[in-house]
Design goal:
Shape: globular
Distance between the termini: 21 Å
CATH class of the largest domain: Alpha Beta
Number of helices: 12
Helix content: 25-40%
CATH superfamily of the largest domain: Type I PLP-dependent aspartate aminotransferase-like (Major domain)
Strand order of the largest sheet: 1-9-8-5-4-2-3
Number of strands: 12
Bound molecules: pyridoxal-5'-phosphate
Number of domains: 2
CATH topology of the largest domain: Aspartate Aminotransferase, domain 2
């Protein structure tokens, strides 16, 4: 049996006609830029994320960049984040001229450890970017408490967490701004690149909208410098077709996770979810000291898998100028050696899961 890491064909098949109709409408309207589907999507996402505003942008990475731009950072300002995340989280901090400051993770949830944040706050700290990794929210109460104490902004990197909840509140509504990605492998993916920023702050929303179009308001008049950060109409049209199915997809992922949990709990460390979190399982990430052996065997058995993430960001070559050494953030470094993500997509069937479980147990039991 062959099981892919993600089966976009299985997702596409039942909604093909609706997707093609929606795309055709865009072509026939010729409103490729700023078509009415954009604000329709923004309204739906804002509501879904319990936020007043949502601003469609060109990718999850650009959502992070434009959010940082909205804070008006100066050269040398510092932004605290986790090293155990996708590159874009820290890459965008560098790209707005600021300095990433890394804080180690909680080894159970893989999210930033709030107990280690305060000692890293300086006069230059302007923002904290917690990442809701794999679809589980970070410890937002503790993070917001520190942010409020020092007057620091909080930008949620919710790229993997649309619909995730923390104590009944939705990802994207837990900080000053929430950044989402519609990259095809996220729970809600478009047919290319896309993203969105959520906020409950009127002023920030207005700033984000202006920054998205070169800082222009009215057209051809620029008080601030922005960029081209627009979401394409065609992406919004595709997302509007998929959006009503999202909660169902989340539920299927949660069922698949439970199926794995029950059968793998004595063989590997299964994902730990805080009781007050709604985890949407963008990834199902297990942990074992036999990771490399397991990965090799899964590859041989044609089972899709991935290491998110093999090198924590503080040890990436491009960040060597920051001066971190091996051993500085031990939990992130250890996790990078032991984690493995396996297929969790909604369309996965029991026989596929049984096959994956059987192969995993061959290595670990
Ligand atoms: C996917 C992802 C991003 C970037 O999103 P893109 O749409 O690919 O630019 C940022 N942060 C995290 C945690 C991600 O998983």
């Amino acid at each position: 049996m062959k099981v892919p890491m993600l089966d976009l064909e299985a997702q596409y098949e039942p909604i093909k006609d609706d997707i093609l109709t929606a795309m055709k409408e865009v072509f026939e309207s010729k409103r490729f830029i700023n078509g009415p589907q954009i604000s329709e999507l923004e309204k739906s996402v804002a509501e879904y994320c319990h936020c007043k505003h949502a601003i469609g942008v060109s990718s999850g990475t650009d959502a992070l960049i434009i959010s940082l731009m909205a804070l008006n950072l100066q050269e040398g300002d510092e932004v605290i984040t986790t090293p155990f995340t996708f590159f874009a989280t820290a890459g965008s901090i560098f790209r707005v001229g600021a300095k990433p400051v890394f804080v180690d993770i909680n080894p159970k949830t893989y999210n930033i450890n709030p107990d280690l944040i305060e000692e890293k706050v300086t006069k230059k700290t302007k923002a904290i970017i917690p990442v809701h990794l794999f679809g589980q929210c970070a410890e937002m109460d503790a993070i917001n408490e520190i942010a409020q104490k020092y007057g620091i902004a909080v930008i949620e990197d919710a790229a993997q967490a649309i619909g995730a909840e923390y104590k009944g509140k939705r990802a994207g509504s837990l900080g000053d701004m929430g950044c989402f990605s519609f990259f095809p492998s996220k729970n809600l993916g478009c047919c290319g690149d896309g993203g969105i920023v959520t906020t409950n702050n009127e002023e920030l929303a207005e700033r984000l909208r202006v920054l998205r179009q070169h800082g222009s308001k009215p057209k051809y008049y620029h008080k601030i410098i922005g960029g081209n950060f627009r979401l394409d109409t065609i992406q919004a049209a595709v997302l509007l077709v998929k959006f009503p199915l999202l909660d169902n997809w989340h539920e299927e992922r949660q069922k698949n996770a439970e199926y794995y949990n029950e059968r793998l709990k004595d063989s590997v460390i299964t994902p730990y979810v805080e009781s007050y979190n709604r985890m949407i399982y963008n990834q199902y990430t297990l942990r074992t000291p036999h990771r490399d052996e397991l990965q090799e065997y899964l590859n041989e058995s044609q089972i899709g898998n991935a290491i998110y993430y093999p090198v924590p960001l503080h040890l990436q070559d491009c960040f060597s100028y920051l001066g971190y050494q091996k051993g500085d953030l031990p939990e992130s470094e250890k996790a990078a050696m032991e984690v493995l993500s396996i297929p969790i997509y909604s369309e996965l069937i029991d026989e596929q899961q049984d096959y994956i479980i059987e192969k995993i147990k061959k290595v670990t039991d």
